[in-house]
Design brief:
The complex is a heterodimer of chains A (about 550) and B (about 140). By secondary structure, chain A is an all-alpha fold. Chain A is built from 23 helices and no strands. Classes of the chains: A mainly alpha (about 550), B mainly alpha (about 140).
């Protein structure tokens, strides 16, 4: 996303006129959610409150919050833009992001809820050697969160500046700093309780906004999806190819492999994302965790179905020229579509809808970054600080103080990286976060839960192997160097041809965990595994 | 639940339950459902990805109006995801939860007999509201 350089259409005409409206809606969201956060914070005392919202949310509430946590700006703006520009290939993202939830539902959510307390590492530490696995899992949690956070921050800065028509580097940095500051306030004051409410509100806003635009789009095409697709294909300039796979990823053999790699990372990454995993602890039982995932699948599925109307609608009604003129990556397709279905650039209806959808996009970013900051600071305090650095001797008060400090620190890191890494591509960062989660977190978690023989050495090889291979492959990929859109231009040290490392690093993570377990001389702790297995399936002794 | 005759450490209720027939049933019922289904939906998804990549003509063929095979395949992925989610919930409610509840109840009873150290405060059954605030959070395990 290099939007600020090409801030043209929106900035010059409509957005500047309606800046006040967008700003007031956004302020309304921030002020009301901050009020809720303060209210939630006052009722939040223990570690269970701060980390897991007192485990007091219902399955439906948590399902809503999971949806709010998961549907990031990359989903809302990115997929709408990708469909608007690349047609069918953009839709493939929606499918991967949804199907992935079945891994979480069938294999992860309930056992995790039953056997852990606050973090993913709790499950591993149950039967493996506590300090090394907590160090490994805490590290990968923080790395995944930072990549994901960075993507959202960079996106926020560019997008907010673009939508509000604010020009210049200083304004963009100010926006990033403000987003970072707000999320730190949400997390430190409201903890999990406050953050959960922010995510629920955001999910309702996002679904309502999307539904409204979808209804208006379908109404425009007489409720006939075929007509909508036809109009999109005509307007796209690609004709029928717009509705077929291959426009984005079908260029050659390498890009096709890249597509498989992306597909794997999407479907296996979700169940390893730390900010999603911690959400399963906010409900009282495994049964409620199951209910929440089912609600989330329903809500997220409905949302991704509507991206069809958003993306193809934007292609048909706004057109690729105006979209790329506004933002080359297509990230403003959804707001521009809202304006078009509201009555067009010069109408009051268009202005109001543009403002509403833009405000929804800001709310989306804020809720997701808050979730990420919380997940990583909890892991820092609970895994790294209390159990590794202080060897379990830290009291609850100390751990909570460390968690809040960690949130401030992670917020600061995200702000600084977001400011200086504006050249990084948002979509690539999100896909990288998924790939790292799938390579480093998922294999260890599945082995720990289901494989009796699994050992600490297996876990360490799997986590560190998956983590370093995925990160290194990205460093030596076209994302970082060798191409015009790379992070560093003018140098070329890319030898790995794929943009997404998943195709190599995910099997490697699984393989390393398996081999290292077979090679290790360590005897698996049979008693502890008995406890973990019984507990994960029955909930006996669950917190 | 008396499974103490099996060759497991008699002092460890978890190992006893794990070796017992009731838990074996529960584990089989869970794994036989979840594992094949996971393989199936991932294969189904990968088939879709591969067809998109390497079977362009097939995916481009018209079904009705402007709707082609690729689009129908995409919608089918949504449909199967919803169906699997619903199916698993049904299986879990009917087959897994009752078994799990029985095992947990008897295990927690025998644990309470064994020691009185947790006071049962950390066990929140499916029907009760969470009372974990009062639970001894510090005794990790």
């Amino acid at each position: 996303m290099t939007g600020h350089a090409t801030m043209t259409y929106l900035a010059e005409s409509e957005a500047s006129d309606h800046r006040t409206l967008i700003l007031s809606l956004f302020s309304l969201f921030v002020v009301s959610t901050l009020a809720i956060t303060v209210w939630a914070g006052r009722k939040s005392k223990s570690a269970t409150d701060f980390y897991a919202g007192g485990r007091s949310f219902t399955g439906f509430q948590n399902g809503l919050a999971i949806s709010g946590d998961y549907m990031s700006a990359a989903s809302f703006l990115g997929i709408a833009g990708a469909i608007a520009l690349y047609g069918y290939d953009g839709f493939l993202y929606s499918i991967g992001f949804l199907v992935a939830w079945l891994v979480a539902l069938l294999l992860v959510a309930e056992p995790l809820r039953n056997s852990g307390r606050f973090t993913m590492a709790d499950v591993l530490a149950f039967r493996l050697r506590q300090r090394p696995v907590r160090t490994a899992a805490g590290t990968s949690t923080i790395v995944v969160s930072i990549f994901y956070l960075l993507a959202q921050m960079v996106g926020a800065g560019t997008l907010v500046a673009l939508l509000l028509g604010i020009d210049g580097e200083a304004a963009r940095r100010l926006v990033i700093a403000l987003v970072g500051l707000t999320m730190v306030v949400y997390v430190t004051i409201g903890g999990m309780k406050g953050t959960t409410w922010v995510q629920m509100i955001k999910a309702v806003l996002l679904i309502s906004g999307t539904l409204l635009v979808t209804i208006l789009v379908l109404n425009e095409f007489d409720w006939n999806v075929s007509t909508l697709l036809g109009a999109a294909a005509d307007s796209s300039g690609h004709g029928d190819a717009f509705l077929e796979p291959g426009l984005r990823y079908g260029k050659d053999g390498t890009s096709k492999l890249d597509f498989i790699s992306l597909g794997l990372a999407l479907v296996l990454g979700t169940a390893g994302l730390p900010h999603i995993l911690v959400r399963f602890y906010t409900v009282p039982t495994a049964r409620a965790a199951r209910t929440s995932v089912n609600w989330a699948i329903g809500i997220i599925g409905a949302f991704y179905l509507m991206t069809i109307a958003l993306g193809f609608g934007a292609a048909a009604m706004v057109g690729p020229d105006r979209i790329t003129e506004s933002n080359p990556a297509g990230n403003t397709a959804a707001p521009l579509l809202a304006e078009a279905v509201g009555g067009g650039p010069d109408s009051t209806g268009g202005a109001i809808l543009l403002a509403v959808i833009s405000a929804v996009a800001f709310a989306t970013i804020l809720a997701v970054v808050a979730g990420l900051t919380l997940a990583s600071s909890v892991s820092f305090a609970h895994d790294l600080w209390t159990n590794v650095i202080r060897k379990g001797k830290a009291g609850e008060k100390e751990e909570l103080a460390v968690a809040k400090l960690a949130a401030v620190g992670i917020g600061a890191v995200a702000i600084v990286l977001g400011i200086f890494a504006d050249r990084l591509n948002t979509a690539a960062l999100v896909a990288l976060a998924f790939a790292v989660a799938a390579s480093a977190n998922l294999p260890t978690m599945l082995y720990s839960l289901f494989w009796k023989r699994f050992t600490t050495q297996g876990a360490l090889w799997s986590i560190y192997g998956g983590l370093t291979s995925s990160v290194l492959l990205v460093v030596f990929s076209p994302v970082v160097s060798g191409e015009e859109k790379s992070l560093f231009t003018g140098v070329d040290f890319a030898w790995f041809p794929l943009e997404n490392p998943g195709l190599v690093s995910i099997p490697l993570g699984f393989l390393l965990g398996w081999i290292a377990t077979l090679l290790s001389k360590e005897e698996p702790d049979v008693k502890k595994y008995a406890e973990l297995e019984v507990r994960s399936l029955t909930g006996a002794g669950a917190h | 639940m008396d499974t103490a005759h099996r060759p497991v450490p008699p002092d460890d209720p978890y190992s006893q339950v794990q070796a017992g027939p009731e838990f074996g049933e529960l584990r089989r019922s869970y794994r036989r459902f979840a594992f094949p289904l996971t393989v199936a939906f991932i294969s189904w998804y990968l088939l879709y990805v591969l067809l998109s990549n390497y079977a362009g003509d097939f995916m481009a063929s018209t079904v009705v109006g402007n709707i082609n095979t690729a689009f129908v395949f995409g919608l089918l992925q949504f449909l199967t995801t919803f169906l699997i989610a619903w199916w698993y919930a049904r299986h879990a409610n009917a087959r897994l939860d009752p078994r799990a509840d029985l095992i947990r109840a008897s295990l927690e009873a025998s644990l309470a007999n064994l020691d009185t150290d947790t006071g049962g405060g950390t066990f929140d059954a499916g029907t009760t509201t969470s009372t974990t605030k009062a639970a001894p959070e510090s005794d990790a395990r």
